[in-house]
Amino acid sequence: MEAIILSGGFGTRLRPLTYTKAKSLLPILNKPMIVHLIETLPKEVNKIILAVNYRKDQIENYFNENDFGKEIIVNDEPKPLGTGGATKFAEKHITGRFLVLNSDIICSLNLKDMIKFHINNKAIASISLWPVENVSEFGVADVRENGKIVGFVEKPKPEDAPSEFINAGAYCLEKKVLDYIDTGRLVSMEKEIFPQIIEDTNRFFGFKLKGYWMDIGRISSYIDVHRFLLNRNKIKKFQGNNCKVFGTIKETCIGNNVTIGKNSKLDCAVVYDNALIGENVELSYCVIGENCKIADFSDIRNSVIGDNEKLIENTILDNKAVWTQPIPEGYPDKQIGNVIEK
Ligand code: GDD
Ligand code: MG
Questions:
Q1: Is 295 in contact with 313 (CB distance < 8 Å)?
Q2: Which pLDDT belongs to residue 295?
Q3: 61, containing H or E segment
Q4: Residue of minimum CA distance from atom 19 in ligand 1
Q5: Residues pairing with 148 in the sheet
Q6: For residue 101, how far is its CA from the centre of ligand 1 (angstroms)?
Q7: Looking at ligand 1, which atom is closest to the CA of residue 104?
Q8: Partners of 208 in the beta sheet?
């Protein structure tokens, strides 16, 4: 069985981290986000198709260097085709029923159980569902008691949302779903294809997942997922190799070769490889990029500092994203693929 992993978005809401890294390679507890997902794939998935475009080389290099015991195909779109277009573009690798997975989600979904649910319902398409209070940034399903989905709206206004159950970003699809998607154009699976399948087949189902679900769409959720996983695993801090920690760190994850000077305090921080944090620095609810230098007596809160940035002594920041380098060529100034209309 094949699994398509959608990993082509720019991750604009995770700027400036995504100016230098593919979203799906952003580390969570020092391991790329996409690897957490690959580890949840059941045995029957023997082939993974990575639907990529932006920073495809980074993704390809990573998978050339790391083996996950499954065949990996890097399927490079000539231009971003959206969630549906990217799925269609993988058609040549699909042999039968298949999975499609958003790569920016950390959750406890049991894919094996979801596939069983799909087969038992004789579904054409099944999607994972998760209840949330504020549905407006998600796709929302109108779901019946028996799991049948009778309507689907992507990013509705709160008053138009049919339920509290959102698309949790994992699909089990029959091969014929591909016939609904045009070749070579930007197609949103959620906006165009799901509603059509519901209307035509009436065999669209939702599998409510139990446990936890987190979408890593924004800097805040990126920090929150670290905190959540640390607490869940009952670990106070997570640290890579060759670190020198002279200060105190709490609910924090630091990468390799990180130095944290005397009297510095880190609380809910994510610090990437080779960062140098000076003395008497306070970091709270922050992400500090690779090779960054934060000089002594700085106080940084609720902020993200992009890779390779250097902050001088006494820098005080709250609720800021720091990026002083050129924006990579071709990086959009707004989100494409799944547009949030505001
Ligand atoms: N290959 C490829 N090409 N992948 C893409 C493209 C593209 O053009 N556009 C987006 N993706 C990938 C993203 O990297 C991500 O893994 C996935 O497709 C979903 O795109 P997002 O941009 O993250 O969408 P979203 O978060 O606004 O909404 C989606 O996820 C929600 C759950 O987190 C939708 O599927 C919603 O319905 C859902 O509720
Ligand atoms: Mg997303």
A1: yes
A2: 98
A3: helix 56-65
A4: 102
A5: 205
A6: 9
A7: 16
A8: 129
Using the structure block, give the residue that is written with the tokens 């990029």. Answer: 289
- Work out whether strand 27-28 and strand 31-32 pair parallel, antiparallel, or are unpaired: antiparallel
**Is the CB of 166 within 6 Å of ligand 1?**
yes
Q: For 245-300, what is each residue's pLDDT tens digit?
A: 999 999 999 999 999 999 999 999 999 999 999 999 999 999 999 999 999 999 99
Q: Probe ligand 1: pick from 56, 73, 102, 194, max atoms within 8 Å of CB?
A: 102
The single residue listed with the structure tokens 């936890």 is 212
Q: Is residue 228 part of a domain?
A: no
* 211 and 251 co-located in one domain: no
Residue-range definition of the domain harbouring residue 246 = 233-322
Residue 255's CATH number = 2.160.10.10
Residue among 249, 237, 280 nearest 294 (CA)? 280
Residues 251 and 191 in one domain: no
Q: Which of 21, 155, 191, 320 is catalytic?
A: 155
18 lines ligand 1 (CB under 6 A): no
155 catalytic? Reply is yes
Query: Which residues crowd ion ligand 2, with CB under 5 Å?
Result: 104, 217
Two structure tokens written together for 321: 């994203």
Report how many domains make up the chain.
2
| Cα(180)–Cα(189) distance, integer angstroms | 10
**Counting Cβ atoms within 10 Å, is residue 162 exposed (0-12), middle (13-18) or buried (19+)?**
middle
